[in-house]
């Protein structure tokens, strides 16, 4: 039978076989907690010490002068009413002498005027004054019969400050202010648990509600401003897109005009040796070079047109094959407009007019777009279309004037993108002409364009 070991020897054996307790984790946790606490206090100090805005008054960006003055009027009214009321309450209800009562009242109410432009700085004045007032009132014997630590005048002034603060500062700052308010209120309740009368809960709750509502209003206003900015940007982009689309359409049309002339040059240069006898060999080579150059130019124009054509145009039938219209088709255009219910009076030159192809096409498109605007915006209005030629001055004048629409008629469109006017300006600019558009005193509209009969070389730059 094995003898029992002594207790001391058994204890030593147990200590040798039992692993020691690990305290490294606890030692590492304490520094982490200290660092986290210091970081939290540093962040809190930054939030409470760094205003969001540069000190611009509330409603300072509003154009209306009276609306800019409204925050000052409201805060001044609260300050004027709260200052004597606070002095009266501190002296009559709590028995505080006149000097300390006046000092506390001024510190708690007058800085409200600063809250219009710098609410966080005003909070740094009013909140310590409210805390100091709670400490002073806590030592007065009459406090046992009255609310403590926050009198009603203090709560009202503090809520006004919270509203101004929530309309200017970011969320983290508002949370820090609310936390500081709650921490001080709880501290007062812990110091005198039976003398709070629930005002610390009321102060903490109402300040949180005001901060929440004010922050929601501020964020809603910021969202509306961003929406307006985006709408302005979208409107500018839409106008630019309309201009580019119109220029692309004009470029496609002019391609057909120029391509026709280039084709004529190519055919004439190729057929010259066969049509004209006795051409020297050097002249024949020159004609061949002209024809080759014309073909290369035509090919380059077609490649450029392929870039300008939109996918939508290609998907709906590819490049346009119809010949480009001119003044000869204006009468047919007017007939279609008359059938649409717009009475039109047309005046054209008596005989044929020799116009450059670009000028002929531009004149037709100006009349077309002007009549389209009449149909859309002034249906039923009497319209006069006049095309005159000044051969001595070398100008073609296109005039489209419509009167006010009849009373029973309503516009088919009450708003537009200005696409027609943009197209007119681009076409006139293309041939170095002039354009004058605008409303008339009788409610009508006038479009007057002067185009050179012979188009000049146009440099977009």
TrEMBL record:
> Which keywords accompany this UniProt record?
ATP-binding, Coiled coil, Kinase, Membrane, Nucleotide-binding, Phosphoprotein, Transferase, Transmembrane, Transmembrane helix, Two-component regulatory system
What is catalysed by this protein?
Answer: ATP + protein L-histidine = ADP + protein N-phospho-L-histidine
Q: Per UniProt, what is one GO molecular function of this protein?
A: protein histidine kinase activity
Where is coiled-coil annotated? 226-253
Enzymatic class: transferase
Domain (Histidine kinase/HSP90-like ATPase): residue spans on this chain? 362-453
InterPro entries reported for this sequence: HATPase_C_sf, HATPase_dom, Sensor_HK_TwoCompSys, Sig_transdc_His_kin_sub3_dim/P
Q: Does the keyword Cell wall biogenesis/degradation apply?
A: no
Bilayer-crossing residues are 69-91, 97-116, 123-141, 147-167, 174-192, 198-217
Write down the Gene3D superfamilies for this protein, in alphabetical order.
1.20.5.1930, Histidine kinase-like ATPase, C-terminal domain
Q: Where is the Signal transduction histidine kinase subgroup 3 dimerisation and phosphoacceptor domain?
A: 246-311
Q: What is its EC number?
A: 2.7.13.3
Q: Can you name this protein?
A: histidine kinase
The organism named in the record is Streptomyces rimosus subsp. rimosus
């Amino acid at each position: 039978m094995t003898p029992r070991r002594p207790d001391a020897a058994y204890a030593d054996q147990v200590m040798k076989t039992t692993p020691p307790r690990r305290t490294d984790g606890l030692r590492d946790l304490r520094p982490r907690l200290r660092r986290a606490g210091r970081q939290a206090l540093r962040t809190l100090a930054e939030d409470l010490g760094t205003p969001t805005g540069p000190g611009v008054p509330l409603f300072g960006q509003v154009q209306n002068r009276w609306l800019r003055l409204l925050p000052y009027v409201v805060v001044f009214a609260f300050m004027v009413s709260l200052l004597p009321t606070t002095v009266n309450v501190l002296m009559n209800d709590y028995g505080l002498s006149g000097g300390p009562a006046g000092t506390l009242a001024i510190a708690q109410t007058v800085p409200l005027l600063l809250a219009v432009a710098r609410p966080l700085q005003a909070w740094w004045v009013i909140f310590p004054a409210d805390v100091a007032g709670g400490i002073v009132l806590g030592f007065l014997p009459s406090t046992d019969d009255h609310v403590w630590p926050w009198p009603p005048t203090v709560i009202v002034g503090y809520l006004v400050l919270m509203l101004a603060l929530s309309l200017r500062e970011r969320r983290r700052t508002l949370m820090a202010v609310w936390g500081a308010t709650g921490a001080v209120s709880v501290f007062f309740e812990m110091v005198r648990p039976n003398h709070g009368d629930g005002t610390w809960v009321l102060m903490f709750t109402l300040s949180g509600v005001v901060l929440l509502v004010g922050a929601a209003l501020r964020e809603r206003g910021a969202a509306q401003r961003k929406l307006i900015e985006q709408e302005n940007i979208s409107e500018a982009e839409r106008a630019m897109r309309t201009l580019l689309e119109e220029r692309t359409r004009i470029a496609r049309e002019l391609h057909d005009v120029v391509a026709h002339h280039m084709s004529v040059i190519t055919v004439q240069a190729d057929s010259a040796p066969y049509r004209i006898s006795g051409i020297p060999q050097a002249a024949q080579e020159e004609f061949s070079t002209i024809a080759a150059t014309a073909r290369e130019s035509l090919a380059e124009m077609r490649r450029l047109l392929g870039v300008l054509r939109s996918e939508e145009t290609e998907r709906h039938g590819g490049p346009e094959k119809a010949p480009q219209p001119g003044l000869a088709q204006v009468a047919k255009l007017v007939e279609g407009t008359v059938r649409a219910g717009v009475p039109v009076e047309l005046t054209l030159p008596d005989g044929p007019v020799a116009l450059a192809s670009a000028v002929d096409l531009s004149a037709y498109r100006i009349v077309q777009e002007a009549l389209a605007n009449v149909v859309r915006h002034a249906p039923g209005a009497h319209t006069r279309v006049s095309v005159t030629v000044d051969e001595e001055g070398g100008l073609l004048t296109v005039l489209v004037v419509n009167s006010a629409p009849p009373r029973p008629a309503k516009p088919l469109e009450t708003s537009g993108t200005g696409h027609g006017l943009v197209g007119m300006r681009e076409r006139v600019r293309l041939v170095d002409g002039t354009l004058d558009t605008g409303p008339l005193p009788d409610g009508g509209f006038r479009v007057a364009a002067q185009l050179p009969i012979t188009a000049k070389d146009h440099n977009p730059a």
